[in-house]
Amino acid sequence: MKQITQTGLTVENAISEALETLQVPREEVTIQVIQQEKKGFFGFGAKKAEVEVTVIEKTAAPENSDTLEQTTEIFEIPGELLEKEGEKEEVPALSNEQAIEETKNYIQSIAKGMKIEDLSITHEQRGKKVSFYLESEKVAMLIGKRGQTLNSLQQLAQLVANKYSNQFMMIQLDAENYRERRQETLEQLADRMADKAIRTGGRVQFEPMPSSERKVIHQTLSRRLDIDTHSEGKDPNRYLVIKPHK
């Protein structure tokens, strides 16, 4: 059972943060409010809201369900490569090292499908997290607009790694230090948009972003008591909204 206790400036903010962390939609959880938010007096005695969010356990999916096949529409990667990975087949569990090599081979196969022949891949492992670093003269193709291709490739690599590994692995792909640069950009954007919400006194809406990027913005703005944030819509068009705190 997946369960998380989360605090936030408001109950809704705490729920949104929990859903971002668990990476599930609201209809797939039960929510218990442990504590309502308290504004305090001139900032003194203020308390954040606290909720407990539990993922509703599901029955096993039918054998013919295909996660990769369901997600191919949002990937900017040759369809035939995605379909090949989506095929159901029994594979023996491998060591982490072997699973990493299989994942590298898969990334290379996608790169070749994109006419990228000079891709170099190195990796670093820290516990369950494995970071892959991609280098190529055509690295911009691997990153894509606002990192969309890199994010799609990362999701696929995650599936491949855990298809072969005998232990769960968390995969991250990076190219030309894009992840760090993108985080800095998102943090700066978050403050600018929050300031705009306060200045206009109204709602400010971001463009659709993956959950990992929305989480960066939520975390960046969690220190501010003058605004509230929450996410709306459904992936891959889910977006974040900022409103002045009332």
TrEMBL record:
<comment type="subunit">
    <text>Forms a complex with KhpA.</text>
</comment>
<dbReference type="InterPro" id="IPR038008">
    <property type="entry name" value="Jag_KH"/>
</dbReference>
<dbReference type="Pfam" id="PF13083">
    <property type="entry name" value="KH_KhpA-B"/>
</dbReference>
<keyword id="KW-0143">Chaperone</keyword>
<comment type="function">
    <text>A probable RNA chaperone. Forms a complex with KhpA which binds to cellular RNA and controls its expression. Plays a role in peptidoglycan (PG) homeostasis and cell length regulation.</text>
</comment>
<dbReference type="InterPro" id="IPR034079">
    <property type="entry name" value="R3H_KhpB"/>
</dbReference>
<dbReference type="Pfam" id="PF14804">
    <property type="entry name" value="Jag_N"/>
</dbReference>
<dbReference type="InterPro" id="IPR015946">
    <property type="entry name" value="KH_dom-like_a/b"/>
</dbReference>
<dbReference type="InterPro" id="IPR038247">
    <property type="entry name" value="Jag_N_dom_sf"/>
</dbReference>
<comment type="similarity">
    <text>Belongs to the KhpB RNA-binding protein family.</text>
</comment>
<protein>
    <recommendedName>
        <fullName>RNA-binding protein KhpB</fullName>
    </recommendedName>
</protein>
<keyword id="KW-0961">Cell wall biogenesis/degradation</keyword>
<feature type="domain" description="R3H">
    <location>
        <begin position="180"/>
        <end position="246"/>
    </location>
</feature>
<dbReference type="Pfam" id="PF01424">
    <property type="entry name" value="R3H"/>
</dbReference>
<dbReference type="InterPro" id="IPR039247">
    <property type="entry name" value="KhpB"/>
</dbReference>
<keyword id="KW-0694">RNA-binding</keyword>
<dbReference type="InterPro" id="IPR032782">
    <property type="entry name" value="KhpB_N"/>
</dbReference>
<dbReference type="InterPro" id="IPR001374">
    <property type="entry name" value="R3H_dom"/>
</dbReference>
<keyword id="KW-0963">Cytoplasm</keyword>
<keyword id="KW-0133">Cell shape</keyword>
<dbReference type="InterPro" id="IPR036867">
    <property type="entry name" value="R3H_dom_sf"/>
</dbReference>
